[in-house]
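User: I'm new to structure prediction. If I give you an amino acid sequence, what do you actually give back? Let's try with this one:
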Amino acid sequence: MGQENEKISQTLRATEFGVSRQSLYYKPKKPDKDWQLKCRIEEVLRTPGKHSYGSRRIALDLKMNRKPVKRVMNLFGIKITIKKYISAPSWIYGTERLLD
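Assistant: Good question. You get back a string of structure tokens that encode the predicted 3D arrangement of the chain. For your 100 residues, that looks like this:
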């Protein structure tokens, strides 16, 4: 029952997770820059009238390339909410209303 204390080799650990050994040592290169860009994106989205901006418009507003903006939005799960306005079905008003 002392298996918790045994040291598992990196090779075994990698095979358990189903990944290569090298990916166990991976460290993201720009976590601070990504976080700063995330804050800037959220700041743009909090601006009145800009809550439904996509990655292209946000990139234009920030004066930068769209690819890092899109990557950071996917990384942090930032999604744009768009309200859909649905018109009432014609059977509610009937054809008489159209003739008025």
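You can read the tokens as a compact description of the fold. Here is one thing that stands out. Residues 31-46 form the longest helix (16 residues).
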